[in-house]
Fold this protein.
Amino acid sequence: MSVLARILAPLSALPAKAFRVLATLGVTILATTVLGTSAVAGHGAASDASDTSASAQAAALPLGKQRFVVAIGGLRASSTQNWVRLGQYDFHTDGTVTERHWHWTQRVRVDRVYTGFVARNCPTRECNIQTAGGYQSTGASQTLQGTYTVSGNTLRVTWDSGLWEEWELASAADGELATLEYLGSNYTSTHGYGYGSNAAWDARASMSSIASADHTQFEHSYRLWKTTSSNPSPFIDSGDGSPFWVTNWSVCSGGSCLGARTSGGTAGTDYYVSPARSPIGHRRDTMWSWRIANADGRGEYCYTGNSHVKPMMQIIDDGGDFHGWVGVEASLNETVPDQGAYADDIGVFSIYG
């Protein structure tokens, strides 16, 4: 006997009208009892599936991080067409990635430009800080779009052009940061560094907080194409694990830039750090350095020769803490025409801790 028949059998002796009312009620109760559980279960299953899908999408971000600062370059000792790119990668939960970058190459001569920040009351000479041409302007940047996949610890980014690059992912700073180690590509890139978090692009550390950080704990890693007077043949200079040459920064007047002098006197080198431009609402910094003797040799107070210009981006973790910079050197020869590209310094680096 069906469930419905068992419910209605005892009611058959009732008057017809009462029977019809109670029979209808019985069907309603039965429907609620039998179907209601399934309906609720179905709703719960849909909710669980939705939650699972959302979790899967969130997990698809590289170690759960959306925004990465990335320096990548194509550096070969035998070439004078090397290039570097400093960019911001935005990963999205639909599997797409968008990017904004600044690019320099030995094939295109780019002059140094002024940031507008003057280092006053610092250990350095009081000079208007320079950066690589174009970095002071968002208008000089370029963009890329593509897709990405994460397989184990390997992140592959495939740009719409079909070019791809691969990075090894690792968690850092107690999960507040992700690091990228360059693995390879199907185009001319050879080296790179990257760091990611969920901090907004306008989240940046102040110059005073940068100066107060323990820079002896920051590791300087670099790959740099260069020549020297003692080694005129181009080579890739490299280093890992040691602190940067400056570990003690002073905040200049106004709090908008940093200064430091190494070795002291006219035998030393002046180092500067400032934002790439004003107003400050971005993570783009720049480092500028030059030997004091070179300026004196040109009869200059502030050097206008082939100084070192290094566009950088601050590494900021999920909680807003500063972990250093990732950057490129784009010191292209301006003032020694007979040496051409052989007087360039171009490369990628990170100062991280």
Observations:
- The chain has two domains: 3-59, 65-352.
